[in-house]
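User: Hey, quick favor. My workstation is busy. Could you predict this chain's structure for me?
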Amino acid sequence: MAGNRYFCTYLIMNFPFYIARRYLFSKKSTNVINIISAISVIGVALATMALVVTLSVFNGFSDLVASFFTAFDPQLKVQPVEGKTAPADDPILTELRELPQVDVVTESVEDQAMVMYHGQQAMVTIKGVDDNFERLTHIRSILQGQGTFELHAADIQYGILGIRLAYELGTGYYFDEPLHVYAPRREGQLDITDPSDGFEEDELYSPGVVFEVMQGKYDKGYILTSIGFARRLFDQQGMVSSLELRLKPGSDFEAVKAEMRRICGDRYTVLDRYEQQDETFRIMKIEKLIAYIFLTFILIVACFNIIGSLSMLIIDKRNDVQTLRNLGANDRQISRIFLFEGRLIVIIGAVIGIAVGLLLCWLQQRFGIITMGSTEGAFVINAYPVSVHPWDVVLIFVTVLVVGFLAVRYPVKSFR
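Assistant: No problem, here it is.
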């Protein structure tokens, strides 16, 4: 008896779902309702698929940009909160150097200057670094030319130009004549009869290579040289613009970064690679957010098909509704039948859309079906990059459920 009572209770509680499932997959008396229901599923699936693919493409471009930066930007960068430079022997910086997780430390002095070569001139950023810079980053992987990574030899100071800067100045990979560098003097009185007296002038020679980060900020505006040259040019002896660090393999990156920020307090800021390029990644996040909002509106439009499908189904099943009432079903249970029907359409459409979207992303990753252009090598990559982030998939699924469930309430509420 207890078992029969439990079964009857279970049946009464769940019969709206079973009837809704039967209504969804069975043939209706009016064939157009089947067509509209199928269109509703397809509409939700297409909108979901578009969300998956679009957000994954934005992720792909973001990861691609991040991979370029890793070849030039340090893993962690410590710079003063106030002013351009800080004493290299600051006790705080010394404590950071001595952390057991730190593997490579490079001092850097960075500032603006003007360069001139054969009458061509440009405003650039001179970045002076220690000789171990190649151990700090993957700079060798982005060098082009016949030479090697070298910042100085005896009294000769070398300058490694960004590839677009070299093109604009006309230096090529190797220039046999010196590159003239000018920077405003920090100290002393300016002789107005001789404007050139207000500038420090020095020369850089070519090691036979240029670098290509594939980002205009660096390729068009940076020159990499020795820290001794930069300190002399900008009159920053004993000072640093930043302390750049790389951690030992296996270190807990977030824990070390948090410890560094505790040590630095409010005098220095500690930046990881993404934070060093905060403006670039912020713009990409905004673009991704706008794409998500627009596609969500498309999803909302697609959900109007569900409203039409449920409205017609309610009209088609009037006789069934009367029969259920005669059998003892109340209005709430009958409403739940159509509510479950609409939710099933949303869930099936969401699952199909995510599955198809993930399949398309895999095909793009594997075979590069959609290319960036018809000319091979015209772009950094040949095909659109795709990167699926699990949290994006979760967000998309939740978004579809929320929008879809809200949409199905309207015709059911009207039925009541």
